[in-house]
Design brief:
The protein has 228 residues and is of the alpha/beta class. Helix content is 31%, strand content 19%. The protein has one domain: Rossmann fold, CATH 3.40.50.1360. It is globular. Bound molecules: 6-phosphogluconic acid. 6-phosphogluconic acid (6PG) binds next to strand 4.
Length: 228
């Protein structure tokens, strides 16, 4: 898969992808904390990362030195089961001492504009994100940046999203600049449903996930385009 200088790791199945990605995150986060004393990590929503996060939860990370951020959030009330932070809390933090976790959920219950404005104050106070982990939709979206959606061109650090094609229509996302400027960008994509988007990326199509300029991909054989 010719996507500039990105490293594409291909595994037999989603379980192997989850294990490899968790191991890689353990290594990269530990390195970051060793060098910087802290690591700022953005995490994806959706279903793909769930197993990886559950594995990560069992690893001996320097939890107190890590700050975690959802890469995007769906505009539902707090604690709504379909929110991305609900999945992240369940998979990553349910077995960790709350006093040891620094999780910064996006206030999506405020609505797209107000929530984005408030969260931008936090993101703008950081030196930048060290690691951004992302999923990819079947249309090549990432976080809540969808093809041809105005949010993709919004220069703000955190952006409101309207008319998202993947429910719910109203969301909040880290902006493209925030994602692209992160220390490293890691994408996890599995299943045959992602194959078409990956094939389109291979032909150089500027899908939203390509605009983030990922460094490292973790995909399974089902998602790999035929001519990879
Ligand atoms: C969301 C995520 C979205 C997700 C992709 C892939 O709100 O769903 O932000 O970007 O990562 O749509 O979703 P799956 O992992 O469920 O295929």
């Amino acid at each position: 898969m010719t996507m500039t200088s990105a490293v594409i790791n291909v595994y037999d199945n989603a379980e192997a992808v989850a294990a490899a990605a968790a191991e890689y995150l353990l290594q990269q986060i530990s390195l970051c904390v060793a060098e910087e004393g802290v690591c700022h990590v953005a995490l994806p929503g959706g279903t793909t990362p769930a197993h990886c996060l559950a594995l990560l939860a069992q690893m001996s990370l320097p939890w107190q030195q890590i700050h975690w951020y959802p890469g995007d959030e769906r505009c539902y009330p707090r604690a709504h089961p379909a929110r991305n932070d609900s999945m992240i809390r369940e998979k990553l933090f349910s077995t960790i001492d709350p006093a040891e976790t620094n999780f910064h959920p996006i206030p999506a219950e405020l609505g797209p504009e107000a929530g984005a404005e408030q969260y931008a104050k936090l993101i703008d106070s950081l030196p930048g994100l060290d690691i951004v982990v992302l999923g990819m939709g079947e249309d090549g979206h990432t976080a809540s940046l969808f093809p041809d959606n105005p949010a993709l061109k919004d220069e703000r650090s955190v952006v409101p999203v309207y008319q998202a094609p993947k429910p719910p229509p109203e969301r909040i996302s880290l902006g493209l600049n925030t994602l692209r400027n992160a220390g490293q960008r890691i994408v996890i994509a599995t299943g045959s449903g992602k194959r078409d988007a990956l094939a389109r990326l291979q032909t150089g199509q500027a899908l939203p996930v390509a605009l983030v300029e990922p460094d490292t991909w973790f995909i399974d054989k089902a998602a790999r385009p035929d001519k990879a």
